[in-house]
Design brief:
The complex is a heterodimer of chains A (155) and B (68). Chain A is α+β, with helices and mostly antiparallel strands. Chain A contains seven helices and seven strands; from the N terminus they run H-E-H-E-H-E-E-H-H-E-H-E-E-H. Chain A has a four-stranded mixed β-sheet with strand order 2-3-4-5. Chain A has a two-stranded antiparallel ribbon with strand order 6-7. Chain B has a single domain, classed as Rhodanese-like domain (Oxidized Rhodanese, domain 1), CATH 3.40.250.
């Protein structure tokens, strides 16, 4: 639709016409603000927790387990230097590392949701798939935060 | 030819050149969600009259939902 609109504007006589083809889907999925009846306050990004534990592949699993337990969380996200999600250490991995490396212990390709996902739809998905939490990532894979189902259902 | 831009260039044009942002989806889509500072001129109504309020000296950026 936007190529036709841009061509139309040029036809009317506008000289400097630009087309942002990726549109508001791209904008919102990158965590940038949206306005309107369903503005950013109704989206996953506004309801996620951001103080979640992360670690890198190079760290020691036993040290990470200790750090995560001390923080009161039962999950940890494995990220690279740009904070792109590589994997997730779940409850079992954090309790019983068994001398493994983080790479061996982590779950690959954890399910994620975009910050622009409407909160009620994200919560529906968590119930349907029996997820207690769901990481929020931008379209480039960068970790932004975590939706925690119990907290959302009681807020 | 209209110039395709990405998110970073959109932000630069808005910041440095006071670009005008136009969502061309129907009004109900715009009402539901739109980019900050965007105005709504649905494609079906896009003509000389409805664009009269736009400044021809400044860049105009159009967008819809996605590239599909």
């Amino acid at each position: 639709m936007s190529p036709r609109a841009a061509a139309r504007l040029e036809g009317i006589g506008f000289a400097r016409v630009y087309e942002y083809a990726p549109g508001k889907a791209d904008w919102g999925s990158f965590g940038l603000p949206l306005e309107g009846d369903r503005d950013s306050s109704t989206r996953a990004g506004a309801h996620m927790q951001t103080d979640i534990p992360t670690c890198t592949l190079e760290e020691s699993l036993s040290e990470v387990c200790e750090r995560v337990r001390a923080s009161g969380w039962d999950t940890c996200f494995v990220v690279n230097d740009r904070r792109v999600v590589l994997g997730r250490l779940g409850r079992a991995a954090l309790v019983d590392g068994g001398g493994q490396t983080i790479e061996e212990a982590m779950t690959l390709g954890p399910s994620t949701v975009r910050p622009s996902r409407e909160l009620d739809k994200a919560l529906d998905r968590m119930r349907r798939e029996n997820l207690t939490s769901l990481p929020v990532t931008r379209s480039d894979g960068v970790l932004l935060g975590l939706l925690v189902r119990d907290r959302l259902e009681h807020q | 030819m209209p110039t395709p831009i990405d998110r970073d260039e959109l932000q630069r044009l808005m910041r440095d050149e006071q670009a005008q942002l136009v969502e061309v989806l129907p009004a109900e889509n715009y009402q539901r969600e739109h980019l900050p500072q965007a105005i709504n001129i649905p494609l079906k109504t896009l003509d000389r009259e409805t664009t009269r309020g736009l400044d021809r000296e400044r860049p105009v950026i159009v967008y819809c939902y996605d590239s599909q």
